[in-house]
Amino acid sequence: MKKNVVRIFTIVIALVMLVSSLSACSSAAKPTATSGKIKIGLSFSDFATERWPIENAQMVQLLQKDGYEVITQEADHDVKLQNDQIDNMVAQGVQGLIVIAEDGDAAVTSVDKAAAAGIPVISYDRLIKTSKIAAYISFDNVAVGTAEADGVMKALGLPGSTTWTKDNPAKVVMSGGSPTDNNAILVRQGQMAVVQPFIDQGIIKVVADQWVDNWDATKAEQMMENILTAQGNKIDAVVASNDGTALGELQAMKAQGLWGKVPISGQDATADGCNSIVLGGQTVTVFKDTRLLAPMAVKMIEALVTKQSLDSFGLKSYTLAALTNDKTKTGNIQALFLPVVEVTKDNVYDVVVKSGFQTYDNVYRNVPADQLPARP
Fold this sequence. Notes:
Blueprint: H1 2-24, E1 39-44, H2 51-65, E2 69-74, H3 79-91, E3 96-99, H4 108-116, E4 121-124, E5 135-139, H5 141-155, E6 170-176, H6 182-201, E7 204-211, H7 217-231, E8 237-240, H8 243-254, H9 271-279, E9 285-287, H10 290-305, E10 316-319, H11 320-324, E11 332-338, E12 341-343, H12 348-353, H13 360-363
Parallel strand pairs: 1-2, 1-3, 3-4, 4-5, 5-11, 6-7, 6-8
Antiparallel strand pairs: 9-12, 10-11
Helix pairs in contact: 1-10, 2-10, 3-4, 5-6, 7-8
């Protein structure tokens, strides 16, 4: 594990250096005083998700610092509204768009129109399922799912446990993210790569399989309440797809005395998720250093609106069919996927706190003083 963390952080450091070098030479991408300010549009699916307001503020600050005018729109999980907002930004004269799609299929309508008008679109973190996007940047979502399932299986003692047999399989709940978010599909792909062999051996039984609309914690809690009722509270693990839904499901389990007794996963290394881990509730999260993604998107859109090449960003070509696991999707896109790190109670301090991604006080709140690690 330590070797993997070191290797991944080496990659992350290299990416930081890339972003820094791109920033250092960004003067060529800045609007000139005579040309007026170039407008850039930011379209967010919602601001209820913890990370989106933070990344919006980061992108706005970076773009304004480089002399761009920024228009931000937030769709509050409304697919039609997001399309209308994108159309409106195009009408206002934006010359580039960064889009966090509520629905990767539905957003194609407005994004294709923008691309036809000569406006480059970056698909940010969530795939917009059209070859007309200029680039797609995200994290390795299959690796996210693999890390989630790996953490839960290890907590069950698998492989190698003698507790789980064909006569006594572990009862596992699979909890996916929003079905309209292609990331959720890729995450599930990674989860099943780990879980399926144990299913095939007969030592795991999937007793429920749910997908949580909008990654909504309240909906996840309600779904888990129904699952627990149907299963008579007899579940042994939950492979959940992000911290928000995991924390909602933990609330349902807490009401039945199962908090801290049933391994459960998440992703995003949120403050609440990491705090739950150190308190013994959530088992594993996945750290995605979003501090790298926003600056990269900014430098990419600046390059695109000033007609520069994206060759220096390390993008690779992928088929839409491969990225969506849907053979009916055609065309290729340019994409870049940043690395991720599996985080448990054993390494949350080193990976999340010492890196400054979450504060010491937020992660270790309500932890007894005699159990606190030294401040970094």
